[in-house]
Amino acid sequence: MLEIKNLHASVEDKAILRGINLSVKPGEVHAIMGPNGSGKSTLASVIAGKEDYDVEEGEILLNGENIDELGPDERAHRGIFLSFQYPVEIPGVSVTNFMKTAINETRKAKGLDDMPANEMLKMIREKAELLEIDRKFLSRSLNDGFSGGEKKRNEIFQMAMLEPKLAILDETDSGLDIDALRIVANGVNKLKSKDNAVIVITHYQRLLDYIIPDYVHVLHNGRIVKSGPKELAHELEAKGYDWIKEEVNA
Ligand code: ADP
Ligand code: MG
Ligand code: MG
Question: Does 12 sit in the ligand 1 pocket, CB within 6 Å?
Answer without folding.
Answer: yes
